[in-house]
Amino acid sequence: MNLFPFGMPVPKEEIIDREDFLRTIKSRLLMGQNLVLAGPRRIDKTSIVLEL
Ligand SMILES: Nc1ncnc2c1ncn2[C@@H]1O[C@H](COP(=O)(O)OP(=O)(O)OP(=O)(O)O)[C@@H](O)[C@H]1O
Ligand SMILES: [Mg+2]
Fold first, then answer.
1. How far is the CA of 33 from the centre of ligand 1 (A)?
2. What angle do CA 11, 25, 4 make, to 5 degrees?
3. Which residue's alpha carbon is at the smallest distance from atom 1 of ligand 1?
4. Ligand 1 environment, Cβ below 6 A
5. In terms of Cα–Cα distance, which of 37, 43, 32 is closest to 9?
6. CA 40 – ligand 2 centroid, Å
7. Which of 10, 34, 45, 50 has a 20 to 30 Å separation from 28 between CA atoms?
8. Where are the alpha helices (DSSP H) in 2-44?
9. pLDDT confidence of 7, banded at 50, 70, 90?
10. CA of 41, closest atom in ligand 1
């Protein structure tokens, strides 16, 4: 069993150092604003979308 799967989206409790960013984009989405999430490979885009 691999306790440290590599490369998959991570669950919200394992997303490091994105508290401010998540708060900001959550509040913008709640205001009805659309957004595009762009960034380099493996920067946690999918993890953030799944958490949202
Ligand atoms: N902020 C973070 N906190 C924890 N892990 C992170 C973070 N950013 C990247 N990772 C690591 O990156 C891996 C890939 O995360 P994720 O799939 O969400 O990224 P992605 O930007 O969607 O990648 P891809 O460009 O391949 O689609 C995770 O398994 C994790 O190991
Ligand atoms: Mg992805």
1. 24
2. 15
3. 16
4. 7-10, 14-18, 41-47
5. 43
6. 10
7. 10
8. 19-30
9. confident
10. 25
The full 3-state SS of the chain, as one line of letters, equals: CCCCCCCCCCCHHHCCCCHHHHHHHHHHHHCCCCCCCCCCCCCCHHHHHHHC
Q: Is the pLDDT of residue 4 over 70?
A: no
Ramachandran angles phi, psi of 20, nearest 5°: -65, -45
Beta carbons of 20 and 48 less than 8 angstroms apart: no
CA 49 to chain centre: 5
Query: What is the residue whose two structure tokens read 């960013």?
Result: 21
Tens digits of residue pLDDT in 11-38:
999 999 999 999 999 999 999 999 999 9
